[in-house]
Description:
Elements: H1 2-14, E1 17-19, E2 25-27, E3 35-41, H2 46-66, E4 68-74, H3 79-86, E5 92-93, H4 96-108, E6 117-121, E7 127-129, H5 133-138
Parallel strand pairs: 3-4, 4-5
Antiparallel strand pairs: 1-2, 3-6, 6-7
Amino acid sequence: LLGVAVASNVRELLDTTYTDNSGNQVTLSDLKGKYIGLYFSASWCPGCRKFTPQLVDVYNKIHEEKNWEIIWVTRDKNEPDAMAYFKKMPWLMLPWDQVADRLGPLFKLSKQKYIPCVTMIDPDFNVINPEAVEDIQIEPTFFPWAKEQSLTNRV
């Protein structure tokens, strides 16, 4: 039951409308059946600026075939910096006006203190890898970079 409760909580946290670089709106129901990577990063972070192009490369190669979408959750301190950085990304973004309310609870899913961070979520809203950056860098073909099956029960 704990896994179901946790998955339900993840679904609630993600249940909003996202935007892409063209200004199109995408809802959580539009992402049904997809793996989701929550990407926490910021323009001021040197490690993020180094990792983002690597993630863009992996994403562009496999996102359609693997049914994978990334949602960027900015850690930037202001909207102009966030929007300028987002122009380099081919995926979705949690809208700036929702970052204040959703960033904390979403980042807790990662169990991390630092960025960049990618938290992988399966199509049933189970966290399958709270921090996949190193996995993506070392083994980009091992999608979805799942750790243990029981991981969700410990989130």
